[in-house]
């Protein structure tokens, strides 16, 4: 059985599903997936907890399934956060160097200076402060300033914030399920860690995570994040459109979408007919696959149009040399890369999570991008704690518990 301090768990709390992925840290420094548990999500709406008890029950079922597969007891998790309450801004920090060259302490002071200059209302909480680029004595484009000679260090950072209450409710749900929260990570950041290559980050890329309740966007350029956003539209909107258009239940509409849906009518070939059960005692009816595509296509176009507007608003139109990478469960709808290329006028590919071993066949699926990304973030977090000398057996998770960090504002 793996040792407790060798186990990391990513808990993806989504609008339509909750997934727990267990990984073991290998001697070579990698991650080996040893367990996966999944349960339909009953207590969230557009990425935000609206029913704690239902969310707790779903978390428990997913974690129990993962524990059974991995043959371990789960005590702490890394979890994600999304929702339209997420916002971001870019800030600058500057410090005078204490010595003739940049030290690790100077980098931390510069980032903290930028953090303190961010205007954050009391009802919001900083989730991430991500360096975009450094400047040493006015020299721009510095990625790693450590050891450089100079007198003045500046840093541009991307500050991501979320509503305190939304973060509290996620932490509270996880705690009531009997688990500690080690860290809470913005979901598009987690997904991007799992599906983007370094070359794409350098050239400029938009990562679009098409979830059940939200569409998450993260833009990278020159190797670092430049913009992030969470849009309140997702796969559930497609399901509802089908339910209304086909006069059927949400469950049947979800089945039709998954098995027969297609994002663009021009991709429909042949004259396939699909049987659709009706609500109540009404007899089942039949629709062509083109009928289904005609219902889905306008909503799919709307989703990518919102992404296009966000890219333009952020000022990155024409700067994304690597195009767009779509991921998430909704990206599996047939024809989604084609729809993305049509609306965004960018080359598009479907991204699957990578960077882990073990049960890769189970997690190598776009719907697991966030969960795998949470584990990759967790592995780096462990390295940072070890570098700082703060990890001590199984207690390090509680030392950095998000329960304290989120609730301390009250």
Shape category: globular
User: Structural class per helix/strand content?
Assistant: alpha/beta
CATH topology of the largest domain: Nucleotidyltransferase, domain 5
Helical content stands at: 25-40%
The number of helical elements comes to 13
Q: What percentage of the residues does DSSP assign to strands (E)?
A: 25-35%
Q: Report, as a whole number of angstroms, the end-to-end distance.
A: 41 Å
Looking at the overall shape, the CATH architecture of the largest domain is 2-Layer Sandwich
Side-by-side strand order of the widest sheet: 11-6-1-2-3-19
Q: Please, what is the oligomeric state?
A: single chain
Uncertain spans: 390-410
| Average of the residue pLDDT scores | 89
Tell me the name of the CATH homologous superfamily of the largest domain: ATPase, nucleotide binding domain
Q: Give me the Rg, rounded.
A: 22 Å
For the largest beta-sheet, the strand count, sense and barrel status come to: 6 strands, mixed
The first-level CATH class of the largest domain is given as Alpha Beta
Question: What's the count of strands?
Answer: 19
Number of domains: 3
Write up this protein:
- The protein is of the alpha/beta class and 410 residues long.
- The protein has 3 domains: 168 residues, ATPase, nucleotide binding domain (Nucleotidyltransferase, domain 5), CATH 3.30.420.40; 76 residues, 2-Layer Sandwich (Dna Ligase, domain 1); 136 residues, ATPase, nucleotide binding domain (Nucleotidyltransferase, domain 5).
- It contains 13 helices and 19 strands.
- The strands form 5 sheets. The chain has a 6-stranded mixed sheet with strand order 11-6-1-2-3-19, sandwiched between helices.
């Amino acid at each position: 059985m793996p040792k407790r301090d060798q186990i990391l768990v990513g808990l993806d709390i989504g609008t339509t599903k909750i997934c727990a992925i267990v990984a073991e840290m290998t001697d070579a420094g990698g991650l080996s997936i040893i367990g996966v548990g999944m349960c339909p999500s009953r207590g969230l709406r557009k990425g935000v907890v609206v029913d704690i008890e239902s969310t707790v029950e779903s978390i428990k079922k997913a974690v129990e399934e993962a524990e059974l597969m991995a043959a371990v007891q789960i005590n702490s998790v890394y979890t994600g956060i999304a929702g339209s309450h997420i916002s971001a801004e870019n800030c600058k920090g500057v410090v005078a160097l204490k010595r003739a060259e940049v030290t690790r302490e100077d980098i931390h002071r510069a980032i903290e200076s930028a953090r303190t200059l961010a205007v954050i209302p009391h009802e919001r909480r900083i989730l991430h402060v991500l360096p975009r680029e450094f400047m040493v004595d006015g020299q721009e484009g510095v990625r790693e300033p450590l050891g450089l000679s100079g007198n003045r260090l500046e840093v541009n950072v991307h500050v991501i914030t979320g509503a305190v209450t939304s973060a509290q409710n996620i932490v509270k749900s996880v705690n009531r399920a009997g688990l500690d929260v080690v860290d809470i990570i913005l979901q598009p950041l987690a997904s991007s860690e799992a599906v983007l290559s370094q070359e794409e980050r350098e050239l400029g890329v938009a990562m679009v995570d098409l979830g059940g309740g939200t569409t998450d966007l993260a833009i990278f350029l020159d190797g670092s994040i430049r913009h992030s956003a969470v849009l309140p539209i997702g796969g559930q909107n497609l399901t509802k459109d089908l339910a209304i258009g086909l006069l059927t239940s949400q469950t049947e509409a979800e089945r039709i979408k998954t098995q027969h849906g297609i994002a663009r009518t021009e991709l429909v070939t042949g004259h396939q007919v699909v049987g659709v059960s009706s609500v109540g005692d009404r007899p089942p009816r039949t629709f062509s696959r083109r009928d289904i595509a005609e219902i889905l296509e306008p909503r799919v176009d709307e989703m990518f149009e919102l992404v296009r507007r966000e890219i333009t608003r952020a000022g990155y139109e024409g700067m994304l040399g690597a195009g767009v990478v779509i991921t998430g469960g909704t990206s599996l709808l047939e024809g989604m890369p084609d729809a993305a290329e049509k609306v965004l006028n960018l080359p598009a590919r479907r991204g699957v999570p990578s960077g882990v071993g073990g049960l890769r066949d189970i997690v190598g699926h776009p719907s697991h991008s966030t969960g795998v990304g949470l584990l990759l973030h967790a592995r780096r977090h462990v390295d940072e704690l070890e570098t700082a000398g703060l990890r001590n057996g199984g207690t390090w998770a509680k030392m950095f518990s998000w329960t304290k960090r989120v609730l301390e504002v009250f």
